[in-house]
Amino acid sequence: MVQGSQLYTGGCLCGNIRFEAVGPIDRPHSCSCKMCRLHSGAFTVTWAEFSAESVNWTGKGESPALYRSSEGSRRAFCNICGSSIGAVDDKPIIALLLGSFDKPDQAELVPQSESYKSSRPQWWHPEVHS
Ligand SMILES: [Zn+2]
Ligand SMILES: [Zn+2]
Q1: DSSP summary character for residue 109
Q2: Minimal CB count within 10 Å: which of 12, 17, 92, 97?
Q3: What pLDDT is stored for residue 5 in this prediction?
Q4: Separation of 114 CA from ligand 2 center, angstroms?
Q5: Radius of gyration over alpha carbons of the chain, in Å?
Q6: Which residue from 82, 64, 61 is spatially nearest to 16, judged by alpha carbons?
Q7: Domain range for residue 64?
Q8: 69 CA → ligand 1 middle, Å
Q9: Angle at 54 between CA 52 and CA 86, to 5 degrees
C-alpha cells in the first residue's frame, strides 16, 4: 500500500468518462496477460488499484460501460470512443489504467511488479525506470 490521500484524475479519449480517485493507491503494476492485451490493444498495460469507494465517475457519461471479462471482474471502457479505462472488480476494488491518468508521471505510480511477463511477445521489452 502506497501512502497518501492524493487526488488522481483522468478519463477517456473523448472526455465522456472522467474519474477522480483518492489515494492511497495499491499495487501499481504492469500486466502483459492476453486479457489486458485484447482489452487495450497494447502488449503491456500499467495498473493502479483503489478501493471502490474512493473512485468517483465525474464525466458526462457517468459510469463506464462494463464487460464481464472473467469471474470476479469486469472491464471498463467508454461506450462512445472505446477507450479502455480499467477494471471494476466484484470485490470492492477498482483498478485504473495508468494510461488514462492526466498525470501519470508520478513516483508512487511506478509499477512495482510485472504480471504475465511470459505472455508478451519475445521482442517486446517494456522498461520501467523509477
Ligand atoms: Zn470516451
Ligand atoms: Zn492482465
Answers
A1: G
A2: 92
A3: 81
A4: 9
A5: 14
A6: 61
A7: 7-119
A8: 20
A9: 55
* Cβ 92 vs Cβ 82: under 8 Å: no
Give the closest ligand to the alpha carbon of residue 77. Answer: 1
Ordered mean pLDDT values, 10 residues apiece, the chain (130 residues): 78 98 93 97 97 97 96 96 97 97 95 96 92
**Nearest Cα residue to 10 out of 111, 107, 96:** 96
Tell how far CA 106 is from the center of its chain.
15
CA of 124 to the centre of ligand 2 (A): 16
129, part of any domain: no
Q: Is residue 2 part of a domain?
A: no
Ligand showing the shortest atom-to-Cα distance for residue 84: 1
**SS3 call for 19:** strand
Contacts of residue 26, Cβ cutoff 8 Å, sequence gap at least 6: 1, 2, 48, 49, 50, 51, 93
Residue 63 inside a domain? The answer is yes
- Residue 11 near residue 18 (C-beta atoms within 8 A): yes
